[in-house]
Amino acid sequence: EGVGPQDYTCIKLKVLEFAPETQAALTGNKEVEGKQIFMVAATLRPETMYGQTNCFVGVDIKYGIFKTRNADELFLMTERAARNMAFQNLSPSNGEIVKVADLVGRQLIGTTIKAPLSTYPKVYVLPMDGVLATKGTGVVTSVPSDSPDDFATLTDLKKKPDYYKINPEWVASFDPVPIISTPTYGNLAAPTICAEMKINSQKDKAQLALAKDAVYKDGFYNGVMAIGEHAGKAVQEAKPLIRQHLINIGEAVPYNE
Ligand code: A2H
């Protein structure tokens, strides 16, 4: 990271229902009532969105709900991301940031969202240790089929729901979905490489960094879509098409930092 500008796709994860205490805290907030709230996740792999099983936040990270250029829509993300977006034509006016609520990641755990293209109609917001407040939006959408970090974290949560203070039902039926196939890692690249490298937890950071690199490169250069409108096409070809489609239908926005 930090080598140069990064072209992200920000995926709009529509909030269906906040965790109960958070819903209570937001009730009566006139700026929030009647608005559609989106948790906004920055990704480098828009073509993997079919495989979303959940979304990750950092429990101690501070988030805000911000006005956007669309009066009916609010974005939930870090203030740092809101500041960047304010100079990318995504806020009410150039350079303007309007925050309507403050939240901390812990309050978001258990919130349900609608993740664009996901085969699961409703997924949960869950905790991840490694979410950085200083990258993207501080919200990470989880694709455990193709991201070793996401797979290792989801596996931790399934093994130790009490330790991570989550309801086991929020993870139990959410298995990785085969979405991309490669000759080296088959159609579940992240679970395959985690097994091969004996990665047992999100805490295996050095191993995960190597796995992430290997799967990312292999998926990009050798991957073929196994699901969706572009099934059978190379990932390299499908990636910009899926990205543009999500932007066209209003479910994603381009974002740079
Ligand atoms: B990627 P780069 Cl399937 N903290 O999206 C930690 N990680 C973050 C983050 C944050 N604040 N914001 C974004 N990310 C993750 C999908 C994906 C991603 C797949 C495979 C690999 C992969 C689903 N998660 O990233 O440091 C997001 O996860 C491997 C590079 O800017 C985002 O893309 O290069 C990626 O890290 C951005 O990482």
CATH fold annotation: Isoleucyl-tRNA Synthetase, domain 2
Mean pLDDT across all amino acids: 97
Molecules bound to protein: ligand A2H
Instruction: Describe the sheet with the most strands.
Output: 10 strands, mixed
Stretches with pLDDT under 50, minimum 5 residues: none
**Total of helices:** 6
Task: Please indicate the count of domains.
Answer: 1
Overall outline? globular
* CATH-assigned homologous superfamily: Valyl/Leucyl/Isoleucyl-tRNA synthetase, editing domain
The total strand number stands at: 12
Would you kindly provide a written description of the structure presented here, covering whatever features stand out?
It is found in: Cytoplasm. This is leucine--tRNA ligase. The protein is α+β, with helices and mostly antiparallel strands and 257 residues long. The protein has one domain (7-256): Alpha-Beta Complex (Isoleucyl-tRNA Synthetase, domain 2), CATH 3.90.740.10. 26% of the residues lie in helices and 24% in strands. The strands form two sheets. Strands 1, 2, 3, 4, 5, 6, 7, 8, 9 and 12 form a ten-stranded mixed sheet that branches. Strands 10-11 form a two-stranded antiparallel sheet. Strand 7 and strand 8 form a beta hairpin. The longest helix is centred in the last third of the chain and has 18 residues, at 205-222. The protein starts with 6 loop residues before the first strand and ends with a strand. The structure holds ligand A2H. Ligand A2H binds next to strand 2, strand 9 and helix 5.
